[in-house]
């Protein structure tokens, strides 16, 4: 399977909005990170099941702060300082 690159997926709903595109992108050869604290599911059970499905499929589970931290190359740059301010807000 060809390497399709990386994908960070953020959605409003985890169970129906995140699981299908994340697992599909994974099957197509992308390295997928699912940002879990950006959305949610209508029930706790639905959220926990969605997280388990993502993890078992091989999707990397992450958070907003973690993904921003990975994207910032230089915290002393203007963009890095702006990102830091957003994370601490």
Structure write-up:
By secondary structure, the protein is α/β, with parallel strands linked by helices. The chain has one domain: Isochorismatase-like (Rossmann fold), CATH 3.40.50.850. It is built from 4 helices and 3 strands, in the order E-H-E-H-E-H-H. A 3-stranded parallel beta sheet has the order 1-2-3. Strand 2, helix 2 and strand 3 form a beta-alpha-beta unit. It is flat.
CATH superfamily: Isochorismatase-like
Class based on secondary structure composition and strand pairing: alpha/beta
Measured distance between first and last alpha carbons: 41 Å
At the first level of CATH, what is the class?
Alpha Beta
SSE order, one letter for each helix or strand: EHEHEHH
Give the oligomeric state of the chains in this entry, treating copies of one chain as homo and distinct chains as hetero.
single chain
What's the count of strands? 3
Count the domains: 1
Residue runs with pLDDT of under 50 for 5 or more positions? none
Going across the biggest sheet, name each strand in turn.
Answer: 1-2-3
Proportion in helices:
40-55%
Number of helices in the DSSP assignment: 4
Shape: flat
CATH architecture: 3-Layer(aba) Sandwich
């Amino acid at each position: 399977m060809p390497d399709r690159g990386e994908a960070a997926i953020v959605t409003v709903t985890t169970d129906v909005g995140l699981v299908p595109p994340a697992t599909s992108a994974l099957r197509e050869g992308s390295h997928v990170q699912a940002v879990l604290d950006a959305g949610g599911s209508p029930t706790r059970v639905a959220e926990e099941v969605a997280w388990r499905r993502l993890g078992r499929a091989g999707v990397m589970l992450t958070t907003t702060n973690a993904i921003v931290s990975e994207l910032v190359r230089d915290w002393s740059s203007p963009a890095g300082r702006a990102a830091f301010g957003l994370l601490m807000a």
